[in-house]
Amino acid sequence: MSCQKLTDTPGDDNGPSTQLNISYGSDPLQKMDIYLPGGRNTTTTKVMVLIHGGGWTEGDKADFTSYVSTIQTLLPGYAIFNINYRLAANNSNLFPTQENDVKAAIDLIYSKRNDYKISGKFVLLGASAGGHLALLQGYKYTTPVKVKAVVSFFGPTDLNALFNSNIIAAAIMAGVVGGTPTTHASMYQQSSPATFVNASTPPTILLQGGIDPLVPPAQAEVLKTALGNAGVINQYVFYPNEGHGWIGANLTDSFTKIAAFLNANVN
Length: 267
Prior knowledge:
267 residues; alpha/beta; nine-stranded mixed sheet; 10 helices; Rossmann fold
């Protein structure tokens, strides 16, 4: 699909604007959807980057589209960038391709903040593989922008431990990394958000289901412990009877808690 600019307030270059499938690179998957609020400015307009899941091998930014209006309602005034990234398949686009794409998208958004009329106050939100990528970006990189907070729905945090947690996870990890923690030790370490926790790590809210068959609660718990030991502001939201994703009242509760956490910690 070609780039589209769907909505704009007529005669007002600072009105609400929706722009779909905007390229941040040359690959067809390096696209993002942009939702800009009206009345924005480069001082106070915060930015939320959404990163979809799918085991680094599938999924699409469309997975988050239905939640954009919820985020806009709970966090009015945020500019939202919903991004795609290249997917690992058939021994191509292996790690760190996805990490690099997220960084490229964020670098471009930041470089165009005057054009978009947005501030440098960035928040990253991801689910599953997207949660992993949000945490990794937020923890590993401080330039050109140091993100203000990270939101992770059941994102992997320690890839070595994840590989050893279950057969499905091991198969996925071997496929996207290109080997095991024994053959690719450095890549597993450098791709694990937990590796990069320190006292300046951004405030983080982790949301986790207790019966998740793919990303066990231990992944969130080990990160929560590391964040606490480093003195980093964090919140762990645990739903004991939920799996790898949830709907209904608990999802509503999740977004309410996310909004409260961001309102308290992103200034």
